[in-house]
Amino acid sequence: MVHTGRSERIGKLLFYSAILAVIALCIFPLLWQCLASFNFEDKLFRKDLHVLPDPPTLQNYKNVFLTGESNFGSTSFFRYMCNSLLISVTVTAACLFIGSLSGYALGKVHFMGKNVILGVFLIGSMFPQIAIMSPLFLFFKRIHLMNSYMSLIIPYIAFNLPLSVWVLSTFYTQVPVELKDSATIDGCGEFQIYSHIMTPLVIQGFVAVGLLIIINCWNEFIFASTFILSDKLRTIPVAVALFPGVHNTLPWGQISAASFACTIPVILIVLFFQKKIVSGLTAGAVKG
Fold first, then answer.
1. What is the pLDDT of residues 225-255, one digit of tens each?
2. Residue 80 class from Cβ within 10 Å (0-12 exposed, 13-18 middle, 19+ buried)?
């Protein structure tokens, strides 16, 4: 018994030590990025680098956001943020609208082939972006959609819609069918049942899916770097990745400031809404 208890304590110690090591590996890049953004660039790679900036400075943030002296060129960094925000909100709204209509039909309307349609949506979500990049590039070039917001909005909707349909259809399935029957007896049409009775009961699913889609669009890089060539239409990840330097050097202080500032919204979303995201996805993962 004593040997078993000691083995369990050693096992728990090793387990929690491994977890702490993984957490440290995940936090260190973000921590270094944060500290570098408050440091002078000429002090970042010195041998006597201090853990904390000495003294801390906001010059990197001023250069990026206020003074216009950053190395982003003629385009304001706020323009990149607005581009990312516009695309993310548009894609999220479209996916939630189309996904809710499709989810309601698949969850509450009886017709043949529902499982086949759900399977098609699931298979569609498994395709890697790189697999269809070349056909999409040629297609957008032929119909003159390159260098436009639509060249990102269309593929973003295509890749995020399966998640929206899959989760929301499960949420609609969980709503008691008696509510729909009662509404039908009272003379409500199908769209009235969808919009006034069913949808308010699955708001938790909307919140969870919407937050995940916003995060996906905000961080997406492959399509944004391929289909957008105009500097004024670039999103944040591409703008930071293409940050120009001077004299074969990169302004790591400004890069860190821009990257950290754009990471903060995602961190805040996860911190404040993680319970809604997890509870929404787990609630939608079990059919009633």
1. 999 988 889 999 998 888 765 555 677 888 8
2. buried
**CA–CA separation, 124 vs 103, rounded Å?**
16
Is residue 217 domain-resident? yes
246: which DSSP letter? Answer: B
* 3-state SS class at 100: helix
Is 213 inside any structural domain? yes
The pair phi, psi for residue 228, each rounded to 5°, is -110, 115
Q: What is the pTM of this model?
A: 0.81
Among 64, 88, 108, the domain-final residue is 64
Residues 149 and 86: beta-carbon distance below 8 Å: yes
CATH value at residue 234: 1.10.3720.10
Same domain, 48 and 84: no
pLDDT digits (tens, 9 = 90+) for 112-170: 888 888 888 778 778 888 888 889 999 999 999 999 999 999 999 999 999 899 889 88
Does the residue 287 lie in any domain?
Answer: no
Which domain range does residue 45 map to?
Answer: 4-64
Q: How far apart are CA 101 and CA 21, in angstroms?
A: 44
